[in-house]
Amino acid sequence: MAWNEEVAARDYLPAEERQQLQLKRLQHTVQRVYTSVPFYQQAMDALQIHPSHINSLADLHRLPFTTRYDLIEHYPLGLLSVPREQLSRIHASSGTRSKAKIVGYTRRDIDIWGEVCARSLACAGLQPGDILHNAYGYGLFTGGLGLHYGGEYLGMTVVPMSSGSTQRQVTFLHDMQATALCCTPSYALTIAETLSALGMSAQDLHLKCGIFGAEPWTKALCQQIEDRLGLHALDIYGLSEIIGPGVAMECIQSHQDKQADRSLHIFEDHFLPEIIDPATGEALPYGAEGELVFTTITKEGMPLLRYRTGDLCTLIAEPCTCGRTLVRMSQIKGRVDDMLIIRGINVFPAEIKRILFGFAELAPYYQILIERKHTLDSAVVQTEITPSMQTAISPQEVDSATWTDNEQIQQLQKRITQVFYAQLHLHIDIQIQPTGTLPRSEGKAIRVIDRRPT
Question: Domains of the chain, with CATH numbers?
Answer without folding.
Answer: 1-335 (3.40.50.12780), 339-450 (3.30.300.30)
